[in-house]
């Protein structure tokens, strides 16, 4: 492949099963390539795996990446260098990923939480493009969130903002994967769906529609809890739009519609209630990788 310039950025979204890669230009956010590979669950192998992909892609495109953004499903420290807690790959707890990558290959890296960069991508190039105040929610293996104001990602004072999935809705309720109890995530994640006796939200909705009593109760439960989450976000942060993505949201138009309707009864401000806007994400499964690359551009 011929040299296409030095304005390319690589986005990497490290998931429990797969790691997604996307290459975009810094000028017009044009996507050149995207693909996914299985994620190694060993610290050294993960670093070697990422470095090998960077080197291979730089050879292919005959250029050095201007920046590499890395998204990860877990708690990142405030300086954006270390994975403090990894719920899906426990070996990566307290792992200084950026330092290890920099030692192995000197590049300009950015590390952030996957739900944060999802919201960032949707705010800059997706369902919330052009909107000033954006809240994002991801529903999948877990439940995450992100906040964006005027195209700037809100990290919080210690890097822990927007953890909507780990806010408490049922004190003393179901034990969460993080070790806490009664969190939203245990009612709005893949684990929650499996507790209702099905594998996907779409299957749950279909069975509920067909009159299955257990499925109807399960679907109503998800509608209620997502409604509570939406109302809580509006009452606390008052966004212009809430964008919902992740594997569960892909075929969840009915769930999102009913949850938005349910949320209105619990929104305090009449103006915020009337203006409530909930949209399904636009960028699909590569939104996290895209957001990581966009964050590298902005930084």
From TrEMBL:
<dbReference type="InterPro" id="IPR000600">
    <property type="entry name" value="ROK"/>
</dbReference>
<dbReference type="Pfam" id="PF00480">
    <property type="entry name" value="ROK"/>
</dbReference>
<dbReference type="GO" id="GO:0009384">
    <property type="term" value="F:N-acylmannosamine kinase activity"/>
</dbReference>
<dbReference type="GO" id="GO:0008761">
    <property type="term" value="F:UDP-N-acetylglucosamine 2-epimerase activity"/>
</dbReference>
<protein>
    <recommendedName>
        <fullName>Glucokinase</fullName>
    </recommendedName>
</protein>
<dbReference type="InterPro" id="IPR049874">
    <property type="entry name" value="ROK_cs"/>
</dbReference>
<dbReference type="InterPro" id="IPR043129">
    <property type="entry name" value="ATPase_NBD"/>
</dbReference>
<comment type="similarity">
    <text>Belongs to the ROK (NagC/XylR) family.</text>
</comment>
């Amino acid at each position: 492949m011929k040299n296409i310039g030095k304005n390319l950025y690589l986005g990497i979204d490290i998931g429990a099963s797969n790691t997604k890669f996307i290459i975009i230009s810094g000028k017009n956010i044009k996507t050149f390539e995207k693909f996914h590979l299985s994620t190694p669950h060993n610290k050294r192998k993960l670093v070697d795996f990422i470095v090998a992909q960077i080197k291979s892609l730089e050879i292919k495109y005959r250029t050095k990446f201007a920046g590499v953004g890395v998204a990860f499903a877990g708690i990142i420290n405030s300086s954006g260098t270390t994975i403090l807690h990894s719920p899906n790959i426990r070996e990566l707890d307290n792992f200084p990923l950026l330092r290890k990558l920099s030692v192995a290959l000197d590049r300009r890296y950015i590390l952030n939480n996957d739900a944060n960069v999802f919201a960032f991508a949707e705010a800059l190039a997706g369902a919330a493009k052009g909107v000033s105040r954006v809240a994002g929610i991801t529903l999948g293996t877990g439940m995450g969130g992100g906040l964006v104001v005027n195209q700037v990602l809100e990290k919080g004072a210690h890097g822990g903002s927007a953890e909507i999935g780990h806010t408490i809705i049922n004190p003393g309720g179901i034990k969460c994967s993080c070790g806490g109890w009664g969190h939203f995530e245990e009612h709005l994640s893949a684990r929650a769906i499996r507790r209702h006796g099905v594998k996907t939200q779409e299957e749950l909705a279909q069975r509920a529609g067909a009159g299955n009593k257990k499925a109807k109760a399960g679907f109503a439960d998800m509608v209620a809890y997502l409604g509570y989450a939406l109302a809580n976000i509006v009452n606390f942060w008052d966004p212009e739009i809430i964008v919902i993505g992740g594997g569960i949201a892909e075929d969840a138009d009915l769930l999102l519609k009913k949850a938005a309707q349910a949320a209105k009864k619990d929104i305090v401000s009449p103006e915020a209630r009337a203006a409530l806007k909930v949209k399904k994400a636009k960028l699909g499964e590569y939104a996290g990788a895209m957001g990581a690359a966009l964050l590298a551009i902005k930084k």
